[in-house]
Design a protein that fits this description.
Strand content: 25-35%
Number of helices: 11
CATH superfamily of the largest domain: Medium-chain alcohol dehydrogenases, catalytic domain
Radius of gyration: 20 Å
Helix content: 25-40%
Structural class: alpha/beta
CATH topology of the largest domain: Quinone Oxidoreductase, Chain A, domain 1
Largest sheet: 7 strands, mixed
Bound molecules: zinc ion
Distance between the termini: 14 Å
Shape: globular
């Protein structure tokens, strides 16, 4: 089979490899679509911590079951499936409590082990979610990033009519926004990039504000009847943004950090305390998040295809991924398509 290997920063090569073996508890999938993530871009650029070369990247993967191990009963050859890329240890305290996404020795396909940019991928049956019906493979490959938003927003404990501010209108910010909307929340986004704001408004019909405008706080108050937000979700990974999120929540509101900031964060202790905020952090997602996103997609509350702006055939992916890194290409989400 053909595999696209990332040998080092900006250094891709196509290799012919033997087809993967399929142990009794595994399912071998013919890969059909791989959606490219911000973390893939960081890996290509060589600034993804925990990443080792050479690696086949791609953790947002859709395909069709090609072969199943003899112990697998819940998936059949021909089923359309989506990869759930987390590989938890299954025995640590987090795993035993069902929080497999926060496993103390978590690995991911496409990061610690070879991922989707190859013609076939074998993984344990528990890592594949069956997608009923015949949706487009490209849309299915977009489910994983939608589960990141689902997992983050679940921490807000939203009620219909609650107000949510999502800071950062990139793909993960939009994922959080559309998931918050499924709870009946009123959602507003903030992003300093005018193209992102326009995309958000035109495609998702959600208001997006410029956080650097001097009247930002005043506008936030105006659109929330003076109360500010029940939930603030920060996807920027930017220190300055994350240190000021408490300013946008109502009394007793909740903050969720999705973007990872590697520096030290400081907040004004007294002002922060007086709002009695909940501060939470989110990592990855679980099977429950996949099932929720799938359900709300089927009900028509969210549409993975809205995120996809670019596609490229697998044989041209090495070249295209080098281009998609550049912001001027205007890629929101790009998908690598495999010949059917
Ligand atoms: Zn991702
Ligand atoms: Zn574990």
């Amino acid at each position: 089979m053909r595999a696209l290997v990332l040998n080092g920063p900006y250094d891709f090569s196509y290799e012919d490899r033997p087809d993967p073996v399929c142990p009794p508890d595994h399912v071998m999938v013919r890969v059909e679509a791989v959606c490219i993530c911000g973390s893939d871009i960081h890996a290509i650029q060589g600034h993804q911590p925990l990443f080792t070369f050479p690696r086949v990247i791609g953790h947002e993967v859709a395909g069709t079951v090609y072969k199943r191990g003899r112990d697998v009963t819940d998936l059949a050859v021909g089923d359309r499936v989506c990869l759930m890329p987390c590989i938890p240890c299954g025995t640590c305290r987090a795993c035993r409590k069902g929080r497999t996404n926060a496993c103390s020795s978590l690995e991911l396909y496409g990061v610690h082990r070879d991922g989707g940019l190859q013609e076939y991928l074998a993984a344990p049956a528990v890592n594949w979610l069956k997608i009923p019906g015949i949706p487009k493979a490209e849309a299915v490959s977009m489910l994983e990033p939608l589960t990141i938003g689902a997992h983050a927003v679940a921490k807000l404990d939203l009620q219909p009519g609650d107000r949510v501010l999502v800071v950062g209108a990139g793909p993960i910010g939009m994922s959080c926004a559309v998931n918050a909307r499924t709870y009946g929340a009123q959602v507003v986004l903030a992003d300093s990039n005018p193209q992102r704001r326009a995309f958000c408004q035109d495609t998702f019909h959600l208001p997006a504000l410029d956080p650097f405008r001097p009247d930002y706080l005043q506008t936030l108050r105006q659109i929330t009847d003076g109360d500010l937000f029940d939930g603030v979700v920060d996807t920027t990974a930017a220190k300055a943004s994350m240190e000021t999120d408490w300013k946008w929540i109502c009394q007793g509101g909740r903050i969720v950090f999705v973007g990872i900031c590697s520096g030290t964060l400081e907040v004004d202790g007294l002002s922060f305390h007086m709002r009695e905020p909940g501060l939470m952090v989110t990592r990855n997602s679980t099977r429950r998040d996949f099932e929720r996103v799938l359900e709300y997609w089927r009900l028509g509350f969210l549409d993975p295809e809205q995120f996809i702006t670019h596609t490229v055939p697998f044989e041209q992916a090495a070249q295209a991924l080098g281009q998609w890194i550049k912001p001027e290409t205007g890629v929101f989400k790009g998908v690598v398509q495999f010949p059917v």
